[in-house]
Amino acid sequence: REEGGEEVKTRPAELFHVGVYIADELEARGWTTADAAKRMGGDPAVDELALDLWIACGDTVHLIMSDECARGLSLAFGTSPEIWMSLHKSFMEWKYLKSTGPMQDKKEQP
Q1: How far is CA 103 from CA 2, 60, 84, 94, 100, in A?
Q2: Which of 20, 70, 97, 98 is found 20 to 30 A from 14 (Cα to Cα)?
């Protein structure tokens, strides 16, 4: 987009990994991962491990947000599964764009 004859560079805001949101939700409620896992509707031991992985791995490991995981998070936190899928998808797209370079500053061409 041009403004006053000059190109205006825009960048997406920084996005955060789903584990950050999970950790925030747990903290806000005073819950442990075990507390949330009991509310997710699946095997509590498996769900607790999944929560621990989401929080601990951050964006260093590529984790996939499954429909089942999104449903479990929605049950635990009183949200919709779509919110969790959207948070994950948006972060992964942002991370990809950031790594491929379009958002990096490029030297101005004369």
Answers
A1: 17, 20, 25, 10, 8
A2: 70
